[in-house]
Design goal:
Keywords: Cell membrane, Lipopolysaccharide biosynthesis, Membrane, Transferase, Transmembrane, Transmembrane helix. The chain has 459 residues and is α/β, with parallel strands linked by helices. It is built from 19 helices and 14 strands. The chain has helices at 3-36, 60-76, 89-98, 115-123, 137-145, 159-165, 171-178, 189-198, 229-242, 261-272, 291-300, 308-312, 322-327, 339-345, 364-367, 383-392, 401-413, 415-431, 435-458, and strands spanning 52-56, 81-86, 104-107, 127-131, 151-155, 183-186, 205-207, 251-257, 280-285, 306-307, 330-332, 348-351, 373-375, 395-397.
């Protein structure tokens, strides 16, 4: 597919859906519509102004990477004018809640010719940065034309995405897009290899690790960096109490689960409860749109459960009293951005997308909280992390629900082994920190190169 064909298709779709955009704007979405059309409020920039950096984060996960980079930018480039765009309302909400007030949080513009060129001229970033796997051809093209990089940082690329991008008719468009990046900073060797196979210039592809492991605590999440062990215990006790979890109840958190896994995990939880009667099961589906499907399955199996929002808001649905809430042992996560907090209160962690063929998900987010991580055999997208944790004694492969039960019972009956694995997991995660610093060094170099070019032209 050529760039020209891509734009014809994109504009055709836009013209079809634009009436619905207008109707939506009448219901309170006016600001979103304006920003999608590239109508941002900008201020003129004079000579000698601070560098302007535009970070594009698709949704909540990428916003967390942006948080880590913003923290490091504050150290290395204090006063930098930082803009963060996102595609989703959840992403924008989290961005506004967790970023410093001086950071401009906004909806990303539609990837349309005319809109993107105007946006790039009006905002005038010194550097446009895409995070993880954001390949929008037009905005990247315009950033290159304006000499605003672009750069792809914290870059990930799964085998599934590689196969999709190499297929006709999108392959030529993707190749042209990634060729415009000045730097592609991959999180691991597998990701770097895939970008090179996709056609990226080898000299532009480097490995920097995952900036998410340098993530600062969000507001109200001081448990991530407690002043003392006593402070940590107080924070964790408070979090558990808020969820209706007693001090002696073990907690199994299953994060980022996919279709086909919840029934397997329910079977495992029911079996574990024979020996661990107080075991709390926290289930966090990867996609919230699957909540009705999961709730229907729970009701079909006569399973009593609570939504996380009901507990965290202090609500008592159906007239339930606090003692009844204390006895609730299944919690369904129906809120975005809560998984890290839940990993903190967990005793046992299973990472989803791995008992079914979905490639797995981020293991080190749980390891960073000092939790041994259990995962299934399908970790193709995070193979390096899985192998690193497994060989280091902080991660454990479970083939099926029976294997999961056996591993958790082994931890329960051999606490010294559990604590050793927890220390190993936390140590591995700590050793991987520092990526945000490296990636901000790249940002500084690219901005410096642009300033140097502009100065040489002015002489």
């Amino acid at each position: 597919m050529s760039y020209f064909v891509y734009q014809i298709i994109a504009w055709t779709i836009f013209l079809i859906v634009f009436p619905f955009f207008l109707i939506y704007s009448l219901g309170g979405g006016r600001q979103e519509l304006r920003q999608r059309l590239g109508l941002y409020h900008t201020t003129p920039r004079g000579p000698g102004s601070q560098p302007r950096i535009w970070l594009h984060a698709a949704s909540v996960g990428e916003v967390q990477v942006a948080r880590a980079l913003v923290q490091e930018l504050d150290r290395q480039l204090p006063g930098a004018d930082i803009w963060v765009s996102t595609l989703t309302r959840h992403g924008l909400q989290v961005c506004r809640e967790q970023m410093p007030d001086r950071v401009r949080c906004l909806f990303a513009p539609l990837d349309l010719a005319g809109i993107c060129s105007r946006v790039m001229r009006n905002i005038g970033p010194d550097l446009y940065v895409c995070l993880e796997t954001e390949l929008w051809p037009e905005i990247i093209r315009q950033a290159a034309r304006q000499q605003a990089g672009p750069a792809l940082l914290n870059a990930r690329l799964s085998e599934r995405s590689l196969r999709r991008y190499r297929r006709w008719p999108v392959a030529p468009l993707i190749l042209a897009t990634i060729s415009r990046f000045r730097v592609i900073a991959a999180i691991g060797e597998d990701d770097a290899r895939r970008y090179r196979e996709l056609g990226a210039e080898p000299a532009t592809v480097i490995i920097c690790g995952n900036a998410k492991y340098d993530l600062p605590p969000a507001a109200g999440q001081t448990w991530s960096a407690p002043a003392t062990r006593a402070d940590q215990e107080v924070e964790l006790t408070s979090l558990r109490s808020g969820l209706g979890i007693g001090p002696e109840q073990p907690v199994l958190v299953c994060g980022s689960t996919h279709h086909g896994e919840e029934e397997l995990l329910l079977t495992a939880w029911r079996k574990l409860k024979r020996n661990l009667p107080g075991l709390v099961w926290v289930i966090a589906p990867r996609h919230l749109r699957r909540l009705p499907e999961i709730e229907a399955m729970f009701r079909g199996k006569n399973l009593e459960y609570w939504r996380l929002s009901e507990l965290s808001n202090g609500a008592d649905p159906d007239g339930a009293t606090r003692p009844e809430k204390q006895r609730a042992t299944v919690i369904l996560v129906d809120q975005m951005g809560k998984l890290a907090e839940l990993y903190a209160v967990a005793d046992y962690v299973f990472c989803g997308g791995s008992l079914v063929r979905r490639g797995g998900h981020n293991l080190l987010e749980a390891a960073a909280h000092g939790k041994p991580v259990l995962f299934g055999p399908h970790m193709e997208d995070f193979r390096e992390d899985a192998e690193l944790l497994r060989q280091g004694g902080g991660g454990f492969l479970v083939r099926d629900e029976e294997d999961l039960c056996q591993r958790i019972m082994a931890f329960h009956t051999r606490p010294a082994e559990y604590h050793r694995a927890a220390e190993q997991a936390g140590g591995i995660a700590r050793r991987l920190r520092g990526s945000a610093r490296q990636q901000v060094e790249i940002i500084k170099q690219l901005i410096g190169q642009k300033v140097g070019k502009n100065n040489s032209r002015g002489q």
